[in-house]
């Protein structure tokens, strides 16, 4: 059993309180590789932002759970080496789908876990969420749970259709589970194809898809029922069209990839939404830089040559999100 405090990590409790009161959101970036980890830490240190580094079940399968844990421990040491005396880094399990997986992560040093029972019947979701919360709180690990279903594909989590969170359920759910934060469904969606073309309109000037707006009325009702309670948005990549264009220009094929417009995320971050999950934008930034580099340097084959611009491009994207979308820059504890 390793406690996250011994690794220099923090849980989400204090940072969420400050984010809700301060009208900004904490970035939750998924990571699988060393380059992503380095870019996340560099961006957080340069902007003086707290940050959540999150690991999905798919990431654990890809990279190995133990390696990812050591990478998070390394992230804390790296942040200090870069000059941040007191980094606030959370190691979070994204979309835990069983009590056993959540327990395993808590036992190996995660400071926060998500139990996602959103596809289960309501009472079953409450029962397992409660079980995770009881175990996690013994070790001061914070727990995110989910009500409502997001559309899209996220590693092994996939759903064809979304069901908005029902505001009339949130008080009962939060009270009975004892969760520390609640992921809700208000129209965001996992992946780089968040909406089908028939759900969107098309900008006549650019020919690009314009997605339907998020359900801010549902968010407002939830906030009214649970004042000050930390709310989480999954599926919040914006799918930057310049990255999609670069990928397509250099041999990729991502027609009609579309995300959540950043101004809507900015608006959400000013509300009780205090954690915004971004994964696909990092994948796009990495792939765009690698495709461009390899197309322009067909004789290069040292991975460091193309991973370096990929890391730079991800870092630029992370800094942009922190400063211009979520507003968490300069928000480390005094
Ligand atoms: P995106 O696919 O929009 O980046 O969402 C990631 C996410 O919600 C991880 O849980």
Would you kindly provide a written description of the structure presented here, covering whatever features stand out?
- The protein is α/β, with parallel strands linked by helices.
- Helices cover 45% and strands 16% of the residues.
- The protein contains 12 helices and 13 strands.
- The protein has helices at 13-22, 34-47, 57-63, 65-81, 99-107, 122-138, 170-177, 216-225, 241-249, 262-269, 280-296, 303-326, and strands at residues 26-30, 51-56, 89-96, 112-115, 142-147, 151-154, 157-159, 181-184, 189-190, 201-202, 209-210, 231-233, 273-278.
- A hairpin with a 2-residue loop joins strand 6 (151-154) and strand 7 (157-159).
- Helix 3 crosses helix 4 (65-81), helix 5 (99-107) runs parallel beside helix 6 and helix 11 (280-296) runs antiparallel to helix 12.
- The two termini are 31 Å apart.
- The structure holds 1,3-dihydroxyacetonephosphate.
- 1,3-dihydroxyacetonephosphate is lined by residues 30, 94-95, 154, 190-191, 234-237, 277-281.
Briefly characterize the structure:
It contains twelve helices and 13 strands.
């Amino acid at each position: 059993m390793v406690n996250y405090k011994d690794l220099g990590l923090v849980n989400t409790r204090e940072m969420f309180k400050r984010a809700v009161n301060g009208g900004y959101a904490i970035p939750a970036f998924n990571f699988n590789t060393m380059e992503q980890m380095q870019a996340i830490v560099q961006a957080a240190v340069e902007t003086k932002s707290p940050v959540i580094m999150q690991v999905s079940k798919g990431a654990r399968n890809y990279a190995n759970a133990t390696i990812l844990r050591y990478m998070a421990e390394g992230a804390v040491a790296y942040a200090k080496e870069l000059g941040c005396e007191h980094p606030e880094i959370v190691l979070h399990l994204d979309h835990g789908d069983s009590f056993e997986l959540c327990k395993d992560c808590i036992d190996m040093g995660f400071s926060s876990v998500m139990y996602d029972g959103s596809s289960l019947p309501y009472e079953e979701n409450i029962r397992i969420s409660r079980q995770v919360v009881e175990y996690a709180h013994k070790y001061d690990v914070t727990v995110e749970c989910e009500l409502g279903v997001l559309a899209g594909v996220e590693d092994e989590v996939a759903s064809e259709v979304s069901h908005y969170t029902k505001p009339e359920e949130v008080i009962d759910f939060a009270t009975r589970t004892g969760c520390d934060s609640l992921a809700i469904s208000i129209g965001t969606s996992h992946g780089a194809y968040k909406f089908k073309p028939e759900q969107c309109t098309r900008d006549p000037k650019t020919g690009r898809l314009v997605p339907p707006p998020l359900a801010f009325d549902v968010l407002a009702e939830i906030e009214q029922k649970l004042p000050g309670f930390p709310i989480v948005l999954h599926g919040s990549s914006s799918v930057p069209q310049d990255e999609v264009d670069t990928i397509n220009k250099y041999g990729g094929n991502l027609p009609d990839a579309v995300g959540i417009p950043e101004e809507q995320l900015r608006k959400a971050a000013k509300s009780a939404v205090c954690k915004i999950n971004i994964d696909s934008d990092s994948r796009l930034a990495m792939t765009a830089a690698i495709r461009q580099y390899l197309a322009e340097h067909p004789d290069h084959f040292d991975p460091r040559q193309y991973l370096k611009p990929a890391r730079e491009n991800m870092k630029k994207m992370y800094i942009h999100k922190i400063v211009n979308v979520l507003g968490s820059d300069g928000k480390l504890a005094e």
